Amino acid sequence: MKFLNDLRSLDRNNVGGWPKSIKLFFTALLFGLVVLAGWYFVVSDQQDSLAQLANKEDQLKQEFATKQAKAVNLEALQQQLDEMQDMLRQLLRQLPSKTEMPELLVDISQTALSAGLETELFQPGAEVPKDFYAEKPIQLRMVGTYHQFGTFISGVASLPRVVILTLHDVSLTPKDKNGQLVLQGTVKTYRYLEDDESAEAKAANARPASAKNGGQK
After folding, report:
1. Low complexity compositional bias: what residue ranges (predicted)?
2. Which among 6, 38, 45 is positioned nearest to 23, based on CA atoms?
3. What predicted TM-score, i.e. pTM, was given to this entire model?
4. What is the C-alpha to C-alpha distance for residues 162 and 64, in angstroms, rounded to an integer?
5. More confident site: 30 or 106
6. Which of 109, 202, 83 is closest to 163 using CA atoms?
7. Is 148 within 8 Å of 184 (Cβ atoms)?
């Protein structure tokens, strides 16, 4: 009770005259406030930073484990990639070459004729080189029966060289009541590029659009 009585009778203008017990109390209280403020403004932020660093450490460990697993299998993956590239080159070699392309177009036209189709339009367009192959668009219009078109497709598939025909904006519509159909649109066939042609095509595709257009906007 003496402490409470001393606390009620404090003279704020005479701090030096306060009882020793009161001075110790306020000193401890001030120390506690300083410690609490220091924890709130310093230690708390450091704990947040420590938690963030701990999370980042876990992420880095996971990334390291993933990269380490890839590094362990790198040689095997590289070998598989080389094998796949060799297979791709072998498959591409089965496509027509540049010198065989004109003969191939004649063979396709002759196959349509042999199937009994009436070719009203067979117009090859400009060749479009890609990275490792070139595509040749052909605008065509053919008239015949469903069976004749089936014979034509079978004949193209049996040509000596691997022939790939893809259809683009092609329509098949009836012409009359006798079962005649009209096939018209654009088909594309493909050939492989020689090594020097492939290098040129890759270089051309890598150039910016402005350079390809001669700097014109």
Report:
1. 201-217
2. 6
3. 0.52
4. 46
5. 106
6. 109
7. no
